[in-house]
Amino acid sequence: MKKLYPYLKNKFILTGLLFVLYALLLDDLDVFSIYRQTKKRNQIEAAKVDIRQKLIETDKSLNDLKTIGGKERYAREKKFFKKDNEEIFVITYN
Fold this sequence. Notes:
The chain is mainly alpha-helical. It contains four helices and no strands.
């Protein structure tokens, strides 16, 4: 502690130290807010990738529904529509 005391008496070093503490901890863009913003940005980018994948799947489904065969396949697979002389068995996996 005796070795640090002369440096703490120097007004330039003390002012610089106070500025660094203010910049790191008390400013609007302190270390903690930058960390939170970076974490939130990463979450948003992950959600963006997920949404793009869903958009690609939706576009593919929309293109399939433009044909009559695609409409019939969608109705049978997703909505369980059937013809009058058919029976439907739904198999689920746990």
